[in-house]
Amino acid sequence: MKKTVSLLMVLTLAATMTACGAKENNAGNANNAGTTNNGAANNGTNAGGEEAELTPEPGATLLVWEAKEERPFVEKMMKEFTEKYGVNVKMEEIGAGDQVAKLTTDGPAGIAADVVLFPHDNLGKAVSAGLVLPNDEFEDEAKAENSEIAVNAVTYDGILYGYPRAVETYAMFYNKDLIANPPATFDEVKAFAKTFNDKKNNKYAFMWDIGNFYFSYPFLATTGGYVYGNNGQDKNDIGLNNDGAVQGATYFASLKKDVLPLKSGDVTYDIKKGLFTGGTLAMNIDGPWAIGDIKKSGINFGVAPIPSIDGKPSVSFSGVKAWYVNSFTKYPNAAKLFARFASTKEAQLDDFALTGAIPANKEATEDPKIQNDPTVKAFVEQFKNSQYMPSIPEMANVWTPIGAALSDIWNTGKDPKATLDNAVKQIQDANAAASK
């Protein structure tokens, strides 16, 4: 009996100590979780040791900025989000490229959207001005689920800010009635051009916007050139006149004689687009935004990755659209939840179905809806060989000098090395002036 009583006393004491310890641990977790300005609980740990779901602030409502073309998708997301979380969401039509400028004034004034969407190359401006919050609550999910290129594009100075939703790059459209099988190399393009080009009748084998650095970037990047080092973050490391860039620019210059005997000013975006939809241009470098107009033209077309250069897969520029949370929002929890909700695999597939946007999510790009669409699949394949445009503010100093250099190399046969050296010097000078 004494042994039994002693055992009961020990068990009772142990149970009491365990309960006290659990109570103290739960209190510590609640304190560590933190609260928002409205007192809503942030992510913490529940009694079972599992991560607690982020919850919207009481009375939260949200405003979202997006372009008119994306309204069908955003309205679907708003409806489903409200059904799940009980938070009303409204949309205001603001073009993606205009949002950072508008957020600069409207954010501090408290009248901006809670959730915004813009191209990643505007991220540097937004972060420098303190306009967006980091994607901290759903960082692991975003990194695991989306393309590494997309994740890196919406990361600035080592911090993830964006919730990737869609990607874009350019690829090669081809007229199937003029060339049945798309060439895999630029050497094949050269061979085809010799038999096809007819300047008098405006018949050309291959075109791209020659003087536009955005579209001519493959000729510098494929052979080893780059804009800024450290994933586009180091303004002091410019790779547009290194050995690889010079090699590519030399190959680029050879195409005037062998593929496209016109001056760069005669091959504008609109001119080449008109020739392609008119049926006299066999191949044209363009982006997914051109698909609608090309379909309307009735051209029997296909899309393929850009032909390889000097035996290497062509490296194009790419862009990433992502949601961001306004740092001045009154409802950061609700805003982060919406940004996450509207950027999942399922959401990105909805966006593709409703607007044609190409997913950033890796599993989504493997979905039959994508893989069974040869046009979209070609853009996905090209994106895998792309480099996202640097998002630092100094990127603005690159376009004009390099575009002019490429035009000089093409039109007048200027030495690629000297011409690129001069362009890089202009970029360096502009960067130095901006930092004073």
TrEMBL record:
Keywords: Cell membrane, Lipoprotein, Membrane, Signal, Sugar transport, Transport. GO terms for cellular component: ATP-binding cassette (ABC) transporter complex, substrate-binding subunit-containing. Residues 29-56 are annotated as: Disordered. GO terms for biological process: maltodextrin transmembrane transport; maltose transport. Pfam families: SBP_bac_8. It is found in: Cell membrane. Coiled coil: none annotated. Residues 29-49 have a biased composition (Low complexity). Its main location: membrane. Residues 1-22 form the signal peptide. GO terms for molecular function: carbohydrate transmembrane transporter activity; maltose binding. The keyword Cell membrane applies. It is a lipid-anchor. Belongs to the bacterial solute-binding protein 1 family. PANTHER family: MALTOSE-BINDING PERIPLASMIC PROTEIN, MALTOSE_MALTODEXTRIN-BINDING PERIPLASMIC PROTEIN. This is Maltodextrin-binding protein. It comes from Paenibacillus lycopersici.
